[in-house]
Specification:
Elements (H helix, E strand, L loop, with lengths): L2 E3 L2 H12 L10 H14 L1 H12 L12 H10 L2 H19 L6 E4 L4 E9 L2 E5 L8 H14 L3 E5 L10 H10 L3 E3 L3 H10 L9 E3 L4 H10 L4 E2 L7 E6 L5 H12 L6 E6 L2 H17 L3 H11 E5 L3 H11 L3 E5 L3 H5 L7 E4 L5 H6 L25 E9 L1 H4 L3 H10 L3 H8 L5
Parallel strand pairs: 1-11, 4-5, 4-7, 5-6, 7-8, 9-10, 9-12, 10-11, 12-13
Antiparallel strand pairs: 2-3, 3-14
Helix pairs in contact: 2-3, 2-8, 2-9, 3-8, 4-7, 5-6, 5-7, 6-7, 8-9, 10-11, 17-18
Length: 430
């Protein structure tokens, strides 16, 4: 991995480099994706089936888009009992964590006849997108469906690509069924996003779409945002490890590569105050790369967006951490809890040498759908909050309104909104 002295100039260059990975920088695909979205919105199932045949080489009909119970039963027979047990253990942790995020309606009444409150309502129908193709991610199935179930969403549908024979990956089906999905459709890509956004003759329209995907999926979500809700427009995966001289270089190297293997655009960065650790991690990275199955992807990822940044002190290191605002942040220092208090921007924070990033991906419980490309400065991990709406509740009796009604009239007239003022005034006419 390239080793760089951390300065304002190198930090600026790295931030600029990382932002190039954002879906917002893939303008050449926008017109193509918009064409697919518009076609599905207009022609429904006909367009969805045509694109499924074109891109996934699967010849489906409206009657075979929906995954059947027979196919789900076959999937359970296909996966090992050991994997099923792991999925169920993981589900317990994820569900318990998200249960703690639940919000409830509340009302506050006062003696003057005022009642104010907030009504919490779960979304009616949510669509979950699950990628297929090069890799299968049953863990993402759990992470997207569980918070929706905990929130109380009325109906959860899922779309995921099938192979040329019309078959969906067994682990994906089992994970979805265990998490509590209601219906699964065998479609992927931009056409799946459009189908969930606008509805077709077979696929119902949803209120919100969540889940990761490739650049076509990301741009399709961007295209339908506003017509329906979306979780975010996710970029490639990223990890930042903040370490001092006490860190184990072998552990650090392994953790950096755990994200580099995702994608050639994935980012893996070490920020350290120790020159010696920087050199040791670089050596360990080279050793690991030679052994790992996704060597080609890892090598390109590190060449493109892999850095070892050596800082003068922890203050400079933390400044870089907060500006990069990484999706995953590991803190491997002498006192990680103290350092953590100074972190402002990160999607998920892992503390200590035994809290490696894959723990969060699969098992610990917190959601692994996280803000990327610096958006941790203003976005949060996927949560139960993403699947609810909040409505304000206002009640005033005549006795409560009377003492303040002239104030409201004055405010409205200051904005030259005389109908607003009149709405209050008429209630106190002699």
């Amino acid at each position: 991995m390239r080793q760089v002295r951390l300065t304002e100039e190198t930090k600026k260059n790295i931030l600029s480099d990382l932002l190039k990975r954002s879906p917002n920088h893939y303008g050449s695909y926008v017109e193509t994706v918009q064409g697919i979205v518009d076609d599905v919105a207009k022609n429904g199932d006909q367009a969805v089936l045509a694109y499924t045949e074109k891109f996934d080489h699967a010849r489906l009909t409206a009657d075979t888009l929906l995954v059947t119970q027979k196919e789900i039963d076959a999937a359970y027979q296909e996966i090992s009992p050991e994997l099923l047990e792991v999925i169920r253990k993981s589900l317990v942790n994820i569900r318990e964590y998200h249960e703690k995020q639940k919000q409830y309606s509340w009302f506050d009444s006062k003696p003057d006849g005022t009642i104010l409150g907030q009504k919490i309502t779960a979304l009616s129908r949510v669509g979950v997108y699950v990628p297929g193709g090069k890799a299968v991610y049953p863990s993402s199935v759990l992470m997207n469906i569980v918070p929706a179930k905990v929130a109380g969403v009325g109906s959860i549908i899922m779309t995921t690509p099938c192979n040329a024979e019309g078959k969906v990956c067994a682990t994906t089906l089992v994970a979805a069924c265990e998490a509590g999905v209601d219906r699964i459709y065998k479609i992927g890509g931009a056409q799946a996003i459009a189908a969930m956004a606008y509805g077709t003759q077979t696929i119902p329209a949803v209120d919100k779409i969540v889940g990761p995907g490739n650049i076509f999926v990301a741009l399709a979500k961007k295209a339908v945002n506003g017509f329906v809700g979306i979780d975010s427009i996710a970029g490639p995966s990223e990890i930042l490890v903040l370490a001092d001289e006490t860190a184990n270089p072998r552990y650090v190297a392994a953790d950096l590569l755990s994200q580099a293997e995702h994608d050639e655009l994935a980012s893996a960065i070490l920020v350290t105050t120790s020159e010696a650790l920087a050199q040791q991690v670089s050596v360990e990275v080279d050793r690991f790369v030679e052994q790992l199955s996704r060597k080609d992807i890892i090598t390109k990822s590190l060449e493109n967006f892999g850095y070892i940044l050596v800082a003068e002190n922890m203050e400079d290191a933390l400044n870089a951490v907060n500006q990069i605002a990484s999706e995953h942040l590991e803190i491997v220092t002498k006192n990680p809890f103290e350092v953590m208090t100074k972190v402002q921007n990160a999607g998920a924070i892992f503390l200590g040498e035994y809290s490696s990033e894959p723990l969060g991906d699969y098992f610990a419980g917190p959601n692994h759908v996280l803000p990327t490309n610096g958006t941790a400065k203003f976005f949060s991990p996927l949560s139960v909050d993403d699947f609810i709406k909040k409505s304000s509740i206002i009640y005033y009796s005549k006795e409560a309104l009377e003492p303040i009604h002239k104030d409201i009239i004055a405010f409205a007239e200051a904005e030259q909104l005389t109908a607003h003022a009149n709405s209050i005034r008429v209630r106190f006419e002699k």
